[in-house]
Amino acid sequence: MILKQLVDIHTEHIPQLQLLINSHLGTLVPGWALPVSFIASRLERDPWQIVLDPWVQERRTLGVLVQDRVVAAAHLLRYRDDETVPESYRNVGDVAWLLFWPGAADAARMLLDAAHQQMEAWRVRFCYAWGQGLPIGPFAGIPDVWGHIEALFRGAGYQGGEDHDTNLILYAGPVGVYDADPDVRREVGRIEGTCFQMVKEEQVIGHCEFISDLSRGGLLPALRGWGELAEIEISEQWRNQGLGARLLQTALVWHRLGGGQRVIIATTWNEHAAGSGRFYRRFGLHLLAQTRVGWKRG
């Protein structure tokens, strides 16, 4: 019988936790990886998550060791119970992420049971799963390339992943060579990065927000050269005239000018059904994965 030990994740466990996280991350997006120091700091706080993270009251990261190897790990959150937090998150728990090696399903079940015991000790009203997710990328929820993780949560009674307005499909690929459009102007983005605006008759009729540096100034070296299309929209009366393509092309020209080589895009299932997938494939982008969000238990 193989001995499994439940532990709180500490500094000495982080290198093995890094291997576990990066193996899953690299299965989702080729070449993506997080440094040890970044992972350690995000267990304490996620300053890039400006919506959910400020509501967090308590955090705990658990792992299961087998012969001193981290075979499963989970990051647990409890949101505050006060009027500054929306009702849907007030005194609610979140198994923000849980990863395990295929073949370590017993350890993963042991870990999830321990997570549920912690939620009971915190006296949360109910528990989300993968609400915050890993602190990286435009994706959320559980991607289909991590089937062992979805099976674990479904087997534990979690439900979710049925809202096609929030489930995501990821596309990525190399940046091609395009021409910039003179009708597109540039300003600082409202989300982050740069906003490109399509202007006709002195009116903004479309815009896209593009993040040109996913390495965050070199903090994440493996993401150097990657950019993200965070948002794109054309006014309804101007659609189906090729303006969205011209807008995105101009953003990609700007990304390439700064040394960018690759781009990642997340679109909802409903947007994909309406044609966004065909649009992105025209730019040579490939479907990476589909993710399901909105997991909840109890």
Automatic annotation (TrEMBL):
Pfam families: Acetyltransf_1 (PF00583). The keyword Transferase applies. One of its GO terms (molecular function) is acyltransferase activity, transferring groups other than amino-acyl groups. It comes from the Bacteria. Keywords: Transferase. InterPro entries: Acyl_CoA_acyltransferase, GNAT_dom. Residues 156-298 form the N-acetyltransferase domain. PROSITE patterns: GNAT (PS51186). The keyword Transferase applies. This is Acetyltransferase (GNAT) family protein.
